[in-house]
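Two proteins follow. First one:
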Amino acid sequence: MNSAIITFLLVMTVPQWTLQTSGVNARLRGISAVNRRVAWASGSGSTVLRTEDGGASWKKITLTSDKLDFRDVDAIDEQTAHVLSIGNGDASRIYKTTDGGITWKLQFRSDDPKAFLDAMSFWDADHGLVIGDSVDRQIDILMTADGGQHWTRVPPDKLPPAQDNEGAFAASGTNIAVYGHNHAWIGLGAAAHSRVLRTTDGGRSWKVSETPVKSGQSSGIFSITFRDASHGVIVGGDYQKEQEAVDNLAITSDGGQTWKLVKGLTGFRSVVTYVPGTRTLVAIGPAGSDYSVDDGHTWTQIAGPGFDTFSFARGERLGWGAGARGAIGRLTF
């Protein structure tokens, strides 16, 4: 192949960040991109943001007067989105809008003082999952089949027992990966071993696999992604050591039954996701980001800032990252 063509292809592959202005100083840990124009973001201080012009401007949306920390937002379409707040007891909530954020409905408020929700994900407009920290050695998973009008807990006998202190880090809203209509995986940590839960029946029953990702009180799996029913990637590390990348990346090719440790990240990473329709991945954390073009086997550092969370627009090779002090950046390939 002509050397000029090779150089052109390499340049076109390298992802690049463009910083944007959010207009807020909140720590943004939730983001969900719908398309090239519309994306949602969420964070501390009851912050919810929405853009309609590709991030050229972000509008702050007033949802509630209560002081909540919205760690996750999942957009169904341009007008419909769910936001999830964290905290013990009734601080853990889920709200929904169907009119672009003009009005909101409180869909769920925890009545268990020990409960602590972490993240959510949806297969489609009706079916979704929420993961929370374990309570009394029981893993806490909620399911909906009607767009969040009703949330029900998965019975304990359909779940493996939890480890002491096991939960999902509420760092990026990407602890749950869904695929097709019935497959889902959940990355866990903060316990003796980092584990991945998996379901093939829409969340009605779950199995668990141990992974080689290092786990402890402040470490474990922070994010999980799958490109099909077989191939997936988990990332994490120790959030108290953002510059370190010690046993914080693993891949699977058998649907999450077994995981292989891989090296190559340049720091703690709180989110990992596939470029839609490709085998290319990005892994991002507060201290920086990396990308892989071979299903996670090898990695290259991306020049530029770090973020807490990230979302690709559906079917597009562009997306948004968000993080501390209202930071928002657009990544394009």
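Second one, unrelated to the first:
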Amino acid sequence: MPTVRANDIDIYYEQQGAGEPLVLVPYLAIDQACYAFQVADYAKHFTCISVDLRGAGQTSKPDGAYTTELFADDVAAFM
């Protein structure tokens, strides 16, 4: 299970393809699987990195309020 420790949580991610990086950030409360049908095509041109946001999928689920700003901070720390 590939994870990166960032912003005090373990962020799960999947990586496919080769080329310039393309970070796929799911919409709120959904995990990276929401990109399952797009990744194969994107991966022909990019290194696709799809992440599970805080509280979703296989990423840490700490107690507390989740905000868009917090999700953005998590992704920035992940990168």
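SUMMARY FIELD: The chain has a mean pLDDT of 94. The longest strand covers residues 9-17.
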